[in-house]
Structures are given as structure tokens and as C-alpha cells.
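Issue 218. Parser rejects a valid record. Input:
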Amino acid sequence: MKKLFVILGLSLILGSAFANTAQAYSTEGAMYYNEGLDLYSRGEYSKAIQSFKTAIEKDADFVDAYYNLGALYEYLKSYQSAISCFSKINQLDPNDSETIIKLAELYYKVGNNERALFYVTKIKDTDEFYGRAKNLKNQIVVAQQKAAAKSSLANVNKAIETNKKIIDKFSGPTGLAMNSQGVLFVASFTDNSIYKIMPNGETQLYTKSTLLGGPIGLAFDAADNLYVANYTKNNILKINKAGQIYTFMSNITNPYYLIIKDNNMYITEQGNNTVIRYKLY
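Output the parser choked on:
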């Protein structure tokens, strides 16, 4: 604490250094101030606070009492109370740069970065506290950037939750493919079936056939024929637009994913660690 000192021989000090000045504190106020310092040194903080408050009651302009009371509040992490004390000093002496930097630091501690910046920018580059103010300003800027990033992420997450729709009528959903009409098809591995989700969100069973065995990859060709990587039956099925299903390719060991591009079908064959390319037309 900057001004934790005992005032000794106050009347003598007032008679010499502070005579006829605003800093000539009352003898009674100084008595309680000294008492507060003594209590502070013994760790009796609650009693010290009360003594400093009484000193201020006896002398409303007792800057040192305000300072030590504010410093003690800060030590006890009662930051709002500390702000009140240093704000009073700032009213009594608006040009005291140490009080200004203290207010900036306290507002930063309570998360009021806007108010902290208000005070920190009052410190000029020629001031002895400029280095401290510059460091605090950098911390505030970083804190604001983090807050902005956090807010942006919160908005993104909120948008995701708002736009997310869960459809849960499947058993072990795997591959996805969309036809030219915007209908989404979903392979359901566990129950050997394929569902379709209409553009309005309605879910319908598309096919459940004994030919299906652990369907995973799905892909449509240009004519909207659907191809299915039939994992456990080691083949590729084809389902035409009329819904007829038949084996298109056999002896594919654990086919997994399908992609159709420029009339070529690409199949990942998990059992043989290969990729097969097959020309459709």
C-alpha cells in the first residue's frame, strides 16, 4: 500500500508543511487513521476498515484515509468498494495519475474494460505510470478480442442449434446420397434397409430387401439409379428408378464407400485395401 504510514506529531506537521492547505487533516481524523494503520498491521482488517471510515467521517477530504481504505478493499478483493474509494480521491485530485491507474486496474479486474480504457488513456506517455498503463491497455485489448471471439462462437453455435434438425428413425445409419430431385437416401446398416428423407423432412422406408446385407456406401448415377455398397454380402447392388433391386457387381470384399463421377464408379474395397474403378457406360 502506497500510503500506509503512521502520522506522528500531526500538529507539528500541520504547523509547518501543511498550514493553511487543503491537506491539513484534522487531529481527530488522524487519530482514527493511525488506529486503522495499527489494526491493519495486526491483521485486524475489519476493524481497520472501520477506523479508516471514521477518519473520513471526521475529515471528508482525508485522501490518505481514502487511499488506504481502497487499498485494503482491493487486498480483500472487494473491488467495487475499492473503486468507490479511489473515485473519491479522483474527485478531490483529478490529476493524480496513481489514482487514475488504480481505477483503470480495478475496473479491469471487475471486467469493465470500457471503463478501464477510459482511465488508462488518461495516462500520458511522459507520466511515470505510462509503462504500467501501456501494459494494462494491451491486456484490455487482448481481453476484448477474446470476448469478441467468444461472442462470435456463441452466435455460431446458436445458429447451428437453430438450424439443426435431428431425424432419428434409423438403426445404424451409414451412407448418404441425394438424387436429382433433392431426396436424401440413408443406408441403415443394422436393419438392412434404406430410407429416404423428402425435401419437407418426411422420412419414408425406401426398401428393405433380403438382398441387402450391411449397406454402407450409396451413390446415384446420372439417371438416378442408386448403387449400394453391400458390406457383409460382398457385392454392389443397383436399385433402378422403379425400385427394382438386383446384384450389379459381385466378389467385392467388404465394399465401403461409393463415388460416381463422369460415368466412373469408385469403390473402396476394405477387405483387400484397394479402390476399384468401374466404368458404368
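Fixed in the parser; the record now loads. The chain has two domains: 10-160, 173-279.
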